[in-house]
């Protein structure tokens, strides 16, 4: 992103941030996504862990753009499956971003341009679930190692 684009995102954040003093920890949820080519098998366990750390479960598609900008602008820590929903970190300042899985360099570029530390937690077996090049019949299931997520959360909170 160039400086003009970054300033445009900064202006959008400034115009829509309603509760600037109330900081959030966001777990970005994609539960409404139909026909995804990937699926986290232990999402319920991830939600439970995040709730124990005081995270707000947030499904961007259920909210207006203004509400999405507001939530992401107030986030100190953002966790979510690598997706366009997680790309809303564009509207965040220097939040810590924890991505579950890796697909391409888009989230890395967003985090770099917005000065956001990025942690990527690969699927439990270490294999990235990439976008399919051909049609797929079933989503690829994968698991997130909870101990890795817990370590990343501990680190992010400790360095917040």
Radius of gyration: 15 Å
**Count of strand segments:** 7
- For the record, give the distance between the C-alpha atoms at the N and C termini, rounded to a whole number: 25 Å
Overall mean pLDDT: 88
**Total helix count?**
5
Write the element-wise H/E pattern from the N-terminal end onward.
HEEHEHEEHEEH
What helical percentage do the residues reach? 25-40%
Class by helix and strand content? alpha/beta
Biggest pleated-sheet summary: 5 strands, parallel
Shape: globular
Spatial sequence of strands, sheet with the most strands: 3-1-4-5-6
Report on this model:
With 160 residues, the protein is α/β, with parallel strands linked by helices. The chain is built from five helices and seven strands; from the N terminus they run αββαβαββαββα. The strands form two sheets. It has a five-stranded parallel sheet, with helices on both faces. A two-stranded parallel ribbon has the order 2-7. Strand 5, helix 4 (106-113) and strand 6 form a beta-alpha-beta unit. The protein starts with a helix and ends with a helix. The mean pLDDT is 88.
Keywords:
single chain; 160 residues; alpha/beta; five-stranded parallel sheet; two-stranded parallel sheet
Chart the SSEs and their pairings.
Layout: H1 3-16, E1 24-28, E2 38-40, H2 43-52, E3 56-58, H3 65-73, E4 75-81, E5 96-100, H4 106-113, E6 118-121, E7 140-142, H5 146-158
Parallel strand pairs: 1-3, 1-4, 2-7, 4-5, 5-6
């Amino acid at each position: 992103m160039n400086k003009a684009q970054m300033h445009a995102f900064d202006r959008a954040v400034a115009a829509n941030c309603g509760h600037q003093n109330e900081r959030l920890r966001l777990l970005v949820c994609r539960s409404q996504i139909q026909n995804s080519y990937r699926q986290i098998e232990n999402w319920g366990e991830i939600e439970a862990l995040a709730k124990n750390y005081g995270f707000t479960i947030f499904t961007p598609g259920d909210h207006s753009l203004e509400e999405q900008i507001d939530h992401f602008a107030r986030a100190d820590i953002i966790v979510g499956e690598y997706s366009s929903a997680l790309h809303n970190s564009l509207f965040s300042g220097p939040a810590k971003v924890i991505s579950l899985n890796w697909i391409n360099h888009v989230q890395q570029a967003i985090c770099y341009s917005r000065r956001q530390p990025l942690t990527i937690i690969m699927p439990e077996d270490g294999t990235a679930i990439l976008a399919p090049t051909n049609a797929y019949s079933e989503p690829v299931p994968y698991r997130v190692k909870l101990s890795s997520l817990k370590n990343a959360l501990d680190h992010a909170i400790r360095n917040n």
